[in-house]
Amino acid sequence: MSFGRSNFFLLESLEARILLSGTDLLASAATVTASHIAADSHEVHHEISAVNDTLPQGQLPSTTSEINDIFSGVSGEVLQAPAEQTSSDHSAAPVQESVKSDSKIVVVPGANSVETNAKTDLQPATPTAGDNSISNNKNVEQSVDTLKAANPPPSSEVVDVQSIVSSLSPPSQKAAQPRFLSTLPDFLNAITDHLASAVGSSINDSISLGDLLLGGFLRISNPTISFSVTVDNSGGTRLYTGSVTISAGSATLKIGTGLTATITGLTGTYSLTNKSLPTGGKFGITGAQFSLSIPSLLAASGSNLNLSYDPNGSDNQVIASLASFSASLVPFNNSIVIANALTVSKNGFSISDGELPGLTTLGVDGLVDLRNSRITFSGMSYTVGGTLSGTISLHVASATLFPGKTFYGVFSPGNGHADALTGTYSLSTQTFSLVSDLFRLTVGEALVLDASGFTITYSRQGPADQTLIIIPTMTAGSALFNGVDPAEITNVVIRGNGFSFGSLTLSQTAGQNATIGGFLSASGVAIATNGFSVNYSSGVVTGAVSVQVENLNLFPGGNFVQSSFTNITAAFAFETAADTGKLAITIGSFKIKMGEAIQVDASGVVLTPGQSTLATIASATLSSPLFQNLTTVAINNLTITQGGFSIGSVALTVAVNSV
User: Pick from 397, 404, 394: which is nearest to 366 by CA?
Assistant: First the structure.
């Protein structure tokens, strides 16, 4: 049923207030007869004065008890309210039948009637004869004006009474709001509404209503819903038997923030066997293809994903499951794992266990490469409103920190150990916690720093410059020179984007030579730094590592080649984080002899001992202690390697009668 006015004004028993038009109610209460209502304003004021006579000393009620007693003395006859009037029409409208209600006093403005839950109708009050004091009572006039202002005339829109009654139902009787895409129409409601509205003993048709939501977890895109259902009305209750088939191009499954799946090629049924509404039946849906994602953990795809859903079941009911599936593991550079027993419910999911098949090399965010790794996991679970829980276990045979960089670290197993790193990855915090066996940090060709037995922690949600470990003490040595004494260095800080350490000095024991391979020996070697820091994010190197070499010999292992070098300077290349930290030794005066037959002289020669080619000398002069009359021999492109040397070309000039 609908009325032409939209607003119901309720006089609520719990609050001492009047939510209705002041003139209508007060004038009605003051009416002497039930069939005539004064039309002009003078008579209305006179009739309201009768109500005022019942108030103490002509005052408005000021306490709750007075307000609650405002209708005392009013008998049980129906009150007649005056019809709505305009400025040009003051004639009284006929009284309309009041609307009955068992719960509240209701004024229906469009009907000009008052209803109460009393069993007898209200009777008009008997006014005091000859009392017209209300015309002089300013308080009452102000009260009437206030009530008018607070309750303007109702709007003219049509109101559905049923919808208003439904809105007043207790919260427990309202349908639960879906947790996902709640603005979409509900799939089950669409089916039950169509069945309930059908006429006849059978329903055989199809509908398409746009995107629909099933159970608060599955958004189905523009499904076609086909009905093949019979209706039994014999018992006084409509009972439905048959099936509703469902087909759709795609759907999205979403379980909180923990799991999302895109499903394509959907077909399914909603089965009914002698069921009433809204009890209904159960859903069975199959997706031809699916693509599943658990954010920051894994991604998988496959075929034939089966979904089942009982609208009357609990949130813990299983709606989808996979016995075994392959997935890419996000924290380990999308390496493929085999996962077992995925179970999905409305309020969460779980994965029993899984592992990487065989030993493999894994990357972690470009920070570390894990080689010959064994990865297993178990107890993965998620509940809507919570976080993903579970642990991945790691056993790593070897690993490289800062792979591909010129300054890097290497993890390796100690004697009798199988693993260089062991530890876990927490799914809830997305954090690695790894215990190292042996670790060496190589700083170009300048330094190596060694330590063992520390724990490195890395959060995938942390900043790039997060501190992975502060190593209290490391042993520092030369990366190239053997025979330089090691020294301890403290508080080495390794970050996600680099590392830093403080001052250090390495030197030789007096009287000993330092060697590089078997091709170079030196004495008076000293390596020092006042602090050094590398930032791979900015590419900046702060600080330097200096080196000093007093004496240098090339190919010291035999007597065939003798070298004589003077004005020696050396330096490591640490201009930027992209540099190699390469050692370069500059020799001002370069002289080598090969027995007594040949001598080569050059100047400004640069040796790079860490490279296979030590030097390429563009031009040099060759002479012979045995052949004094050889005036000029020019050598071009003399190449010196770790194993010897070669000459590109020689130009020999011989004086007349010199041989």
Answer: 404
3-class DSSP string for 539-562: CEEEEEEEEECCEEEECCCCCCEE
Low-confidence ranges of the chain (pLDDT < 70): 1-183, 558, 628-632, 650-659
Contacts of 256 (CB under 8 A, 6+ apart): 179, 347, 348, 382, 383, 384, 385
For residue 285, give the 3-state DSSP assignment. strand
Pick from 203, 297, 213, 278: nearest CA to 242: 203
Q: What is the DSSP letter of 274?
A: E
From 310, 312, 229, 227, select the one nearest 273 (Cα to Cα): 229
Please calculate the CA angle 186-175-282 and round it to the nearest 5 degrees. Answer: 55
Reference 457, options 495, 505, 492; nearest CA is 495
**DSSP state, residue 30:** T
Which residue(s) pair with 439 in the sheet?
411, 451
Cβ 540 vs Cβ 499: under 8 Å: no
Count how many Cα atoms sit within 13 Å of the Cα of residue 256 in the half-sphere of its side chain.
Answer: 19
Spatial neighbors of 14 by CB under 8 A, at least 6 apart, are: none
Q: Spell out the long-range contacts of 597-605 with Cβ–Cβ below 8 A and sequence spacing 24 or more.
A: 597/624, 597/625, 597/626, 598/622, 598/623, 598/624, 599/623, 599/624, 599/625, 600/635, 600/638, 602/638
Helix (H) or strand (E) holding 46: helix 41-52
H-type alpha helices, 330-429: none
Determine the Cα–Cα distance for residues 454 and 136; give it in Å rounded to an integer. 96
* Residue type for position 645: F
503-506 own/partner pairs: CB under 8 Å, 24+ apart: 503/528, 503/529, 503/530, 503/531, 504/447, 504/476, 504/528, 504/529, 506/447, 506/476, 506/477, 506/478
Task: Look over the chain and give the mean of its residue pLDDT values, rounded to a whole number.
Answer: 78
Amino acid at 330: V
Please name the helix (run of DSSP H) or strand (run of DSSP E) that holds residue 637, with its range, or none: strand 630-641
User: Crossing angle for the helix pair 138-150 and 22-29, nearest 10 degrees?
Assistant: 130
Q: What is the pLDDT of residue 165?
A: 40
Please give the pLDDT value at position 43: 42
Six-digit token pair at 146?
A: 């206030």
CB 408, CB 400: distance < 8 Å: yes
Buried b (16+ CB within 10 A) or exposed e, 223-249: bebbbebebeeeeeeebbebbbebebe
